[in-house]
Structure formats: C-alpha cells, structure tokens
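Quick one - inputs below.
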Amino acid sequence: MAEIEGVLPSLQFLSSTKVPELHLSRPLSTQSIKNTSSSWLSFPLCFFLNRRCVEKQENEHSEPCKNILKTPLKQAATSQLVLTERQPDCQPLTTPPKLKETPPADPWTPTSNLKMLISAASPEIRSREQRRQLSDSSNEVLQTKHCSQEHLLGDEYEKSQPSRKEKSLGLLCHKFLARYPDYPSPSQKSYICLDEVTEELHVERRRIYDIVNVLESLHMVSRLARNRYVWHGRHNLPQTLQALKKVGEENKYIQQIQMIKKREYEHEFDPDSERNEEMASSFGSSDQSEMSFVELPGVEFHAASVNGRKYKSLRVMSQKFVMLFLVSTPQIVSLEVAAKILIGEDQLEDLDKSKFKTKIRRLYDIANVLSSLKLIKKVHVTEERGRKPAFKWTGPEVLPNTQDTKLEATSTTCSPPVSESIPSKEQCSKALFPSKGKQNFTRHSSLIKLVKSIENDRRKIQSAPTSPVKISASTYQSLPVFPNTIAQFPAITKHPLEGQSKAAEEMQMKCALSSPEAVPKPEPSQQPGLSQPLGVCPASHSSMSPVILPHPQSGVSYAICLHPSQAHTVTTYSPGFMLQPLPCANLTGIKSNNSKVLNKITTEEGDTQKGLDEPTKSLAAEERPETKSETSSQRCLKRSQALPENNLIKRHKSDEESLDSTLGESTKNEKTPSNSSQMNREMDNVQEERQNETKTVDQNMSSCCDQCTKENISEDEDKIKTKQDIPVAFAIPAPETFFPSGYLIPLTHCTHGNKAECSNKEKAGVCSLQHTPYSSPITGVIPMPASELKTVNIPAFHITPLNIMVSPNSIAAAPVLSNSCLNSSSTSSAPNPSSSALNFMLQHIGLLPAGVQVAANPVLQHVPVSSQSENISHSSGSTNVQEGKPSAPKEPQEPQTVTENFFRTPGGPNTEPSLSANSDGTQRTSQEAPYIPQRKLEVSED
DNA sequence: TCCTCCCGCCAAGCA
DNA sequence: TGCTTGGCGGGAGGA
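Output:
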C-alpha cells in the first residue's frame, strides 16, 4: 500500500497528460532514454509510462480522435521527460518522496528502466510486451486507482493533488509545445483550438492564454479567429528575434538598463541624487509610453483587442523582455531591471511596489514560457545587495540584419529552411510599428551603426567553425543562427585550461577562421598581420626599444617605449577627438589564454560556452555611446575619484570595447577583393555611412591606428601565449599629429599594498587585475625574454601605459590636471608618475617640446588587465558568474599592477579621460556612455 | 522570510 | 448577451 501511495502523485500527474501515449508514437531518442534511465525516473513513472501506453491502445478503438485539426503530436515524452529532454540541465521534477522511502519490491534499476523504455520505444517489443502484460498491468493499475481513490480522503487527497510545480506554467508550456512540431511543414497548417488544448491539458483556459500570448509575441503562433490559433513553430523565430533586436536597439534599451543600474548605484551612494529626475526625464523623453507590438510581415496579429489592452498585453511585455536580452550584453537580464524598464516606459514615476510586483509576476509568467522554449534560462545574479533572480538568454544568437538571417536560415542545418518569405530589412522595419504603433524612438544613428558594426564583428568571431577549414566570406555570412549549444562552440571552450599555448593555438585558428581576413589574400606577405589580428601575427615592433627614465618623485625608474613609426605616420587631425581609440590588448590576451575567463571578466554572463563571443558582445554593448551632458563627465570624474575600483572596471571595459571596435574596424579595413561582393558592398555601405556621420574623423587615421594597434595586440597576445617574452613597453604607431601610446613601466618593485588589497575580497577585482602580467591594456607588448623579466623584476612592475596624443597644433594649450586627480584614482596601485614627471619623460625622449605639458588622465588611470582566468574573473570585478559548474583551475600568476595614465592634448574640448572609437569610425568619450556601476555580481544557475 | 507564480476575479471587447 | 480575452493582484507553496 505504501507503494501505491507513493505512486499516486505520479499516476495522477501522468493521467493528467496525454503525453505517455505519445511516448509510443515514436522511438525514444537517445537522450530520452538516457534521461529516463537516470535515477530520478524510477519505478512509478516508468511503470505508468508503460501503463499509459497500454491504456492508449485500449482506448484507441473506442475513442475516436477528436483532434481533427491538430497536427500530429510531436513530442514523445511525458511532461517530465519533456522537461528533461528539452532542458537537459534543468532539474527534473522530484519523484514523490514516499517512493524513495519505500522502494518497490521489484528493484527498478536504471537498467530495468532502460529496458522498459526500450521496450516501449520499440513497436515490436512493445506490442509483444503489451500483449503479454496487458491483463496483468491493466488489472494492476485499475487496482491501484481503486486503492488510491479509497485513500484520497482529506489530507491524503490534498497530498495527492499535483503540486504547484506540476501545475506550473513552464511545465504546462512544455506540454503545450510537445503537441506541436518545432518546424511544422508549411504545407500542413497546424491549428490550435484552445478548447481542445484546455481539455486535453486539463488546464484552465486562462493559463493557455498566457502561453499563447508569449508564443504569439514570438510569432510562433498567430491568432486566426476566436478560440483558434495557427501554429507556426519556430519558423519565424529568427526573423522575430532579429526584429525584436532591432527594435530593442532603437529603443535604447541598453541605455535604459544602464540608467537603471546607474540609478541603483547612485542610490547606494547618493540617495538624493538628482539623477533620478534625469533618468525619469530620459524615459519620458523617449516617448515610449505606448507599447507597440512588433509584427512580422506575413504574420498578422489579430489581437482580441485592438487598443488599450493590446499594448499592455503579455505579448508586448514578452517582446520587450526578449528585446532586453537581445540588446544587452551579457545577455542576462534581471527581473528587477526588466520590470523597471517595463514600468518605466509606462510610468516611471508610478514606480510603486504593487505595480512592480505585478510586473514581476508577469515576467515570471513570460519567463516560464520562454524557458520552456529554451530561449532563456534562469540564473541568479548575486550582488552585494543580495541575490536577484535573472534570466540568461540561451536562444539563438541574433544577427543584425535580415539578410544574414535569410542566408543563415537557408544554409543551416540547425534550423530548417524558412518557409515564409523573408522580408527585407526595410520591410521588416516598416512592419515593426503597425497602425497604431508609433516609432517615436529617438534613434541615434551612430548607436545603431555601432551596434550593427559590433554585431558584424561579433558575428565574424562567433561564426568561426571548429574545424580548420577556411571559409569564404559568403559561406561565412551564411552561417546559421547559432543556438548556444556546446557542440557549436569551438574546442577551446571545452578545454579552456589545457594550457595557454594550446589555447593560443586554438585562438589563432579561431581567429583565422572566424574573420573574413582568413580568406586568402592577394598579398600573402601581409596576411599574418592582417588576417590574424588577435595575436597570431608576428611582432612587428622589433625596432622598438624601451627607454629607461627616472621618475623624479618616486625614485622609480621607468621604461618607456614608443613605436618609431609613430613619427612618420600622417593623418588628418580632428581637434574634436583627441584620443586615439586604443584597443584593449589584454582582452585579446585573455581570449588566447582562457576562453572561460572571458565570460567573467566582461560580464555577469555565466555561460562558459559562449566564452569567445561574449567579450566582444559585452564589451561592445555594455558601454554603448550615449549622448550625455557635461555633467556626466563631471560625475564620471567624480566617481573615478571616489571609486577607483569601479573606475578600473569601467576603464577596462572601455578598453575592451575599444578593442572590439578597433578589431571590427581592422576587420573591415582588411577586406580584400577576394571577399564576396556582398561583403564588399556591405563594407562599402558601412564605410560610406561612417564617412557621412563622422565628419571629424579620418578613416585613414582609424585604419592606420587599428592596424598598428592590432599588430601590437597580436604581439601582446603572442607574449601572453608563449610567456617567453615580457612586454616591457610598447607604443602604437600614430597618425601624424599624435604621439600615441607608450607604457611607463617602473623598474623597481612596486608592492604598494597589493597583497593587502588582494586580501580584501571586495577589491578582488582590482587586485586580480593587478596580477596581470605581460599584457597591455591598450596596445601591445615588446618582446622581452623571461630572463630579462627576472632581471628587472617584472612581476612587481607597474606598467603604465601612455596614451600620448599630442597635437603639435594644440599642444601648447595642453591642460595639466592636478596630481590629486592622478592620485585619487591610483589608490590601489603603485604610485603613478605625476604629470610633471611624465612630461619630463616625454620631453626627455623628445616626444614633447620643452615647456609643453600634457595632462595625465585622471579617470582612466587604472586599467585592469588580465590575461588569465582568475584575473579576469576578478577583474570584472565585480562580476562573477556562478552556474553551478566548477570554476576553471587557476594558474599561478605573478602579481603585477597595471596602471594607466592617459595623456592627451588639449586640442579637443573634452577633458574627459578617454576616448574610444566607435566602430563606425567616430570617436567617443567614455562619458558618453552612462556610468555603469560595476559591483560584485555573481550569476548562478538554478 | 522571501521568492515564485498559481489562481481566479472581473473588466474590456467581440460575435 | 454570452463568450473570449487578458489585466491584475491575493495569497499559497516552496526554498
């Protein structure tokens, strides 16, 4: 009897579904068998699986199929099996506890379970077994049911009721989805009758609406008539996601997310900050109070209500929720932020708790459905203030334009060909805001272009196949929309810890394969440097040699090295942009070292499988340019002084972003005629747009610096990989009017409290960043044998990169920032050379005329640099990812502090510390992006 | 205690 | 007018 009681929940659960009968309709997949043979699927489920099969056969003759319109049922699994099969990593529903306490007399081992399931899966075996067991099993089950009914009294009845989990929307959605194929045949329309669904799933109609609404938002279903929907499956998903992403970009959701984070941050430190008003006005100014449903051409939207409710519906919320994932980097969105954004667009001022709670509830509903679709996955973001629920995008990567999607859809094996006519980007855009929808978004063209450019770059990286086969640009462009499955990621993500050299090789391969530069070029001699910008090209700065300089204040000598070519490079100069964008070489180094690390350094993203693509995305998107007033820069400066730790991270990300954009630029600049004409056209368009938009920036300068920077990056990474050479100093070649970066490296021990800071967990990020050896946060490295490293005590070095952009025309007017600024942001590092010292050094080496002063950048002094996993993890500082997976083993790392001082000439009006390049060739200041507080953040999966 | 989200009321809108 | 649709929030189950 105890067995029967233990079985009851499963029995009820199973009897409430039609799934077991489906189980017989097709062979079980290997995964299914594997799952079902696992320990959690023990006797009751297995037994009743089989039992339901028998019942199904019994009933088939007496009960005609009611579902005339229905598509053949797709999924052959119980709801639990569905859960497990569709989300192998999610926790299966718990087996009734009584079962564990009272194991059946007949030991149901995994083997026996497997045998049972194989039997169920094989029609022949099944029928034979069923014939044999028919009488016994049916009697047994009937007896069980009778017995159970006798005991379904009072508490026992309540206990036998399906738990909340078993009635959850997610599980219901699984069951719902199991009814229909992911990719239904275009010729065979699948219709959904809500009445039938509610009856068969034994669920109230209200719940089905929740599911259908979310599915409708993704255009997986569309409403045909009352009570009737059409099932599209995932055919429209790529286009839908693309459209949503586009709209999300136009909505500036990134900025909104950043605003919210910033606001939270400022609430912590300055509860009375006036920025709340700023944020509120920002939301209001976007005039997005009216939500619009994003439609796709050919997929009509027949909402029951054409006004009012439609724009508050779960559909729109769902779309916006998805947009947040698609535009944000990392693709993790916390419920809190999502709710705030959703509310904010309605009424930010009415951000009362009840409304917030309601939004959260709805977001849970949506998230459950999206989780069932495997588009998102629940994680937990742990900040200093606590653990927050969040969701991580696990759906397909969305490429920036429809054209790509079309190509992908037709060339991929991951998804079947798109049956519907794929609209052009323009058509799609027109359809995004139908009838009532207003496109009132204050679109920032440079932002969109930046995003596109970044996405292009990301795509090029992400599309790298694992096999060392070079692909043409056209082939490359036709790569599919990748689901984030481990199978589709390079081997480097699977073996991130097999050594730096191996990782570097993989990175090299990936680099060569992922970028169009891998296409054979007419000038092979240039290929190494051009086609492998991420560190596989040989060092080209052999001519550089460090210059030892004394530091008059600290008594520490510094080595400075500048690339000789800088003096010869000529380009135009725009006084509006003073600092040449300097990519973050250390990011590249990070990539080469450990792909897993990338996730942590750049994002709260926890998906290690996305390691290689994440940084690019995150860096690019995290700090997208945003037009801000001068107050932003002032605040930024203020924050940089008050919170050097945050500043470190921010600057680090900024550098990474710079690298991203620069690589993108380089990638485009390196395109050769051998690339596909489509690529060339695309590039031409991009270039043309950039030229139109960037009035003050010369492309030549960008490309020149990009190439030079890339070389340095490659060198940097090369050193990181080999660890045989030590970067002492380097410089990027610069355009004519700039004296670009170099590094000041103190040649004595700098042990200023680094260890003490390391002991402080709160400063782990800063500390770890300081441990980064051999890498340059900005440009590149100069090879130096390890022996030399020992000689000069490199591990204790504080490499001080110089970003010297001296305009002879304006150098005389260079402002000199107070040393206090310099010092204020260097609390966690070695003493920085003061401006005067640096000026002295610059003058000493002839970079500056006598009497000319350049200012040290007060904000960007700290550039966390890391080339190794733990450093990255910490350096994000602030951001940690926990997905319940063991973290990568850490390699021993010599402590090293990297301090950065930026020098810039006053030619430009900005006094902002840094300028980085947009991928569209424009330059932007770090102030343009709202300051995002980087706090300790952990993301853990449930 | 907080998170999660089921449940059902009830109003808007449609046939 | 009845039915469909879906916004909304209480409150229960679970962690």
